[in-house]
């Protein structure tokens, strides 16, 4: 984990992925100005890493056509790590040219998903990651590169994904030179026992190169899985404001873990996130304004903070 | 814990509380025949303990006016422990007369909640529990009695509830003769750290008299809190089909933990519940039929089981 928890830093890093993972699945396109207002609100709530866009052909994903503009704006927010998804070297070149501080590359945990998704085998994707790292090393050594294993806990095409293969893939990605590698439950198939076991193995294999837990709430286990990942030693968590990014396979079900609820869980446990929950809930407003009629999820925004919960310290008094 | 996990028994006991906890909060009254059809479906799914009703004056709670009839019917379902809530000795007498196998008595963890809810101090409630136990000992020694501490993790009136007082209350209830005593997060204020710590203390204090974790999902932490309780050693879990029993303070928020999602979490982890998930999801039908237009929650019923999940063993293949 390149993030160093504790001390002046919060105990965990919450990496907001809504502006990328949430928006890319919607038919609706959020206007660039609305994205900027939303980013300002997320940053004001204390988020210090935001996945703001992906660099993919605008023809394939018109929601991300303004990626370079969004990155340039996000760079003006003090202390923010501007994260961009890139599926390949061409995307990485564009992201680095735009000024992204960090790149994230998804690499499928199953061969079937990899072929279906990017028409490359996993080995070919590892080679692509290596090319991205080499390009970064030469052209922009200050830019961080992470590569997370998607469908790490189960695949809608292949079904169960062998844990040995996931662990080996993380090791190969680190060997290819990424700064960190995490695990994504892209399909919402993970359970807490599996999360503890698999992240435990990854941490034993790649140590402090272990990156984020990216959990989905498709089957309701998102927060329990994040708790399990925290228990295993993970300190970086991806989530999306309002759970934006409903899973297309589960109508009515939130896809991504809801940032507000995740932050509430950690803060209530005394695990510092550095995030102001009230401002975070307030950041739902510019998101909704930019996406009229969108489905927004999350419990804490509905129920409010518990009586006696100290919003300043993020903890219940005694 | 009077429930003995493992061996021929499942690893955990899921105690379905929807027919009591879920129904009592609704303005709508489920017809007795519909309740019976629902109980049949719950039993067919493998549930072996169901809180079928409460024995309270029908004037105060018309939803439970048919309590004796429901208990008599539930007794015909083989292997089922028929659980009834009783707030006082009068209720206990009626429940025992009707043939309930087990009584559950809620005792408030905070003085303020106790006075507001039953107009008795906590000490007076402990005395009432003692009278119920004495009555049971004489008139129906085969009937089990549990007393769970409500608002154990926080109170909407008092705010934080001192953990020492909760642990002491459990000890007093065991001293008063109950078979087991658990903790209820009535207000949905618990967090996983607190759950592990407080249940850990209760288990150290009263050992195998530790009863159920009764968690609410008001702020989205229901399953994470159940995971934490399981980690602490709890083996009995209350939940409600479809999360029936929305919290009146949190519109749109599910109150009780959703039985289907809880069972999915445990089965996916390899923790045996003895429950058939497909039949459990099917039991939502008679519930909806008996409560037209009711809000039903739950993720697994929407998303379906993951590919490769073995419904017979309740586990993903490898």
Explain this structure.
The structure is a homodimer of 318-residue chains. With 318 residues, chain A is an alpha/beta fold. The first copy, chain A, has one domain (13-305): Aldolase class I (TIM Barrel), CATH 3.20.20. Chain A contains 13 helices and 10 strands. Chain A has helices at 18-22, 32-44, 67-74, 89-98, 111-118, 122-139, 163-175, 192-206, 222-232, 259-269, 277-282, 284-290, 300-303, and strands at residues 13-16, 49-54, 81-85, 102-108, 144-150, 181-184, 210-214, 236-239, 309-310, 315-316. In chain A, the strands form 2 sheets. In chain A, strands 5-4-3-2-1-8-7-6 form an 8-stranded parallel sheet. Chain A has a two-stranded antiparallel ribbon with strand order 9-10. At the A-B interface, helix 8, helix 9, helix 10 and helix 13 of A face helix 8, helix 9, helix 10 and helix 13 of B.
Topology as H/E string of chain A? Answer: EHHEHEHEHHEHEHEHEHHHHEE
Under the CATH scheme, the architecture of chain A is Alpha-Beta Barrel
Poorly predicted regions of chain A: 249-253
Strand tally of chain A is 10
How would you write the strand order of the largest sheet of chain A? 5-4-3-2-1-8-7-6
**Would you give the CATH topology of chain A?**
TIM Barrel
Average pLDDT of chain A, rounded to a whole number, is 93
Oligomer: homodimer
What structural category do the secondary elements of chain A indicate?
alpha/beta
Shape designation of chain A: globular
CATH superfamily of chain A: Aldolase class I
Q: What is the CATH C level class of chain A, in words?
A: Alpha Beta
